Write a sequence for this structure.
């Protein structure tokens, strides 16, 4: 879609603009379809706060738990029960909206390594109105262990937009540079969204500006990798994303003859890096701050039968620990297959050694990494590559002070786990900025199954606001004409 380059304000104001929709969050603003309960009461017209009373689940956001319970009854038990929700296309309820995103629908899923399996079960990843299993059956594919690959999920989300007729509302290839309040002559204020759009078959990015009554922040959390803040972290062999490991493997810079790789972190991305290097027969040192038995570790929360690959990493972390006071095994000289006589210090998983309760003290230009345990004892290891995979932060540079004033603690950077945005739990509207909403990781929701409830909360509140402004219908009609006449580009 080509955006209009507005140098001056026009009367056309979008009810909703969704900013930097980089993941599955685009899918559920219910702009062309509305969920109904079996008793005929539209959820968009329901009192969500009342309906959420007494609801419990694996999310801290009550509307997310409510909608998940309706869409996936007994989902936590792996049961594929029929949902009591009925979906019906009602164009008159549609909310004109515009989705701005850097890439195609599906966002970050397009960048993920395609052969891995999603953490969530496949039916947790699906969107209303299009069963993922049915779609995959049409593609003549089968789910593996009830989980799909990122490539399949990205393709499914992209197809969903086309099937649901949402293409005209998507402006891909856009980078938002500014979101700010502006006042109109009438005394009302609206949001002005500015940015750059790279159109198909063009090299130059074109500036654009859009005006909206409401803005939804849906940036995800993978834009800015978290850093350790230690000496030498900017050295060339120190990397901060899994994709850099993939690039090194693809180019042949990393193979079984390489010096060991150091993986820092104990999350799923770090585990993926361990598996990728181990599969290549490249030795791995693995350092992380927590003890292996810590209940907060994600590995201690995953069912073993559903996630055998991550259970394997957890076993490696447990069984191949560096013992306090012992000399570090030089993995470069260690055989990559277990000896039959059991004389090796590391026999279960050759070529791997974990360092629980260790921090990185520094990186040195000669490829050495200094690890430090909780007692201050230091260990030096020689590596070919260091992967710091300790999480990421959202990029909200288009907001004043990078969005800090919107967080629970305005003195600290926004963190999806420790310092999310402060929003009303039943509308997802920012407490400190009316008319601005947030969903997904920005409010602590990292699973697709719970994102949908956030979208429901937002659309209910937007619909409630619009119902109070019937005099603006003429503006909306004019806007619909402009959106229809926009050129959609591949």
């Amino acid at each position: 879609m080509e955006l209009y380059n507005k140098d001056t304000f026009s009367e056309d104001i979008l009810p909703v603009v969704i900013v930097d929709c980089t993941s599955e969050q685009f899918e559920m603003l219910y702009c062309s379809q509305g969920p109904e309960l079996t008793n005929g009461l539209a959820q968009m017209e329901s009192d969500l706060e009342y309906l959420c009373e007494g609801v419990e689940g694996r999310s801290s956001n009550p509307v997310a738990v409510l909608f998940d319970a309706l869409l996936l009854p007994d989902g936590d038990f792996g049961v594929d029960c029929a949902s009591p929700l009925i979906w019906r296309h009602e164009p008159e309820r549609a909310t004109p909206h515009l989705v701005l995103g850097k890439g195609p629908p599906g966002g970050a899923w397009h960048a993920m390594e395609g052969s891995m399996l999603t953490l969530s079960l496949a039916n947790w990843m699906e969107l209303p109105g299009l069963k993922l299993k049915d779609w995959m059956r049409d593609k003549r594919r089968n789910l593996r262990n009830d989980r799909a690959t990122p490539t399949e999920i990205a393709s499914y989300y992209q197809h969903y937009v086309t099937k649901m007729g949402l293409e005209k509302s998507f402006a891909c290839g856009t980078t938002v540079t500014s979101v700010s309040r502006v006042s109109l002559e009438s005394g009302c204020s609206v949001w002005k969204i500015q940015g750059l759009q790279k159109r198909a078959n063009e090299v130059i990015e074109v500036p654009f500006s859009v005006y909206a009554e409401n803005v939804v922040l849906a940036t995800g959390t993978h834009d800015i990798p978290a850093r350790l803040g230690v000496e030498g972290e900017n050295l060339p062999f120190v990397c901060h994303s899994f994709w850099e490991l993939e690039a090194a493997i693809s180019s042949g810079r990393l193979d079984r003859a390489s010096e060991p790789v150091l993986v820092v972190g104990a999350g799923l991305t770090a585990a993926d890096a361990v598996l990728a290097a181990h599969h290549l027969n490249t030795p791995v040192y693995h350092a992380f701050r927590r003890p292996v038995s810590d209940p907060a570790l994600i590995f201690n929360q995953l069912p073993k039968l559903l996630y055998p690959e991550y259970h394997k990493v957890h076993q490696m972390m447990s069984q191949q620990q560096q013992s306090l006071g012992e000399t570090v095994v030089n993995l470069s000289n260690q055989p990559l297959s277990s000896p039959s006589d059991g004389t090796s210090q590391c026999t279960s998983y050759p070529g791997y050694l974990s360092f629980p309760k260790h921090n990185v003290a520094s990186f040195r230009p000669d490829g050495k990494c200094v690890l430090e345990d909780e007692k201050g004892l230091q260990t030096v290891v020689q590596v070919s590559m260091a992967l710091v995979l300790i999480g990421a932060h959202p990029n909200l540079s288009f907001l004043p002070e990078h969005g800090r004033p919107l967080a629970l603690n305005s003195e600290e950077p926004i963190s999806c786990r420790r310092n999310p945005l402060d929003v009303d739990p039943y509308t997802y509207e920012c407490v400190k900025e009316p008319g601005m909403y947030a969903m997904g990781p920005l409010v602590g929701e990292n699973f697709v199954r719970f994102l949908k409830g956030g979208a429901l909360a937002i659309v209910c509140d937007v619909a409630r606001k619009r119902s109070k402004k019937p005099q603006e219908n003429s503006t909306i009609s004019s806007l619909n004409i402009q959106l229809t006449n926009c050129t959609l580009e591949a």
Notes: The longest helix spans residues 448-467. The chain has ten helices and 19 strands.
